[in-house]
Amino acid sequence: MKNSLRDTNFLQLQDGRKLCYAEYGDPDGKPVILFHGNPNSRLLYGLMPDCPFRPNLHLIAPDRPGYGFSDFYLPGYGIVDYPDDIVALANALGIDKFAVLGASGGGPATLACAWKIPERLTAVGLWGSVGPFTPQSSEGINPGLRLLFRLSSRAPWIPRMQMGLMSFLVNNFLGLYLKLVFTEMNETDKALYVRLGLRERLSPDRTEGMRQGGRASAYDINLAGCWPIPLEEITTKVHLWQAEEDRGVGGMGRYMAGKMPNCEATYIPNAGHFWLFEHMGEMLDTLVPSAGSSKSKVND
Question: Per residue in 237-246, pLDDT tens?
Answer without folding.
Answer: 999 999 999 9
